[in-house]
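[Automated response] Your request has been received and processed.

Submitted sequence:
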Amino acid sequence: MWIWAVIQSTNNQKFGLCEALIKIGSWELAKSIMMAIPPFSAVSHRPVAKCLCNLIHFVIEPLYSE
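Generated structure:
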């Protein structure tokens, strides 16, 4: 059963769409998709989590550069 869950999470189009939207900076659309699926399921997907970390870094980094 665990293997099936891993396969489903790697082939989930919603996760891939969230990842792509975050990469292009469309946070509002990505957020609306994440709100429509079960809580924390998108951010538990490694590529989506990594994109969110990169977005946070991009937003916060200028504050440290000043």
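Summary generated for your ticket: The CA atoms of residues 37 and 62 lie 32 Å apart. The chain has a mean pLDDT of 84.
If you did not submit this request, please reply to this message.
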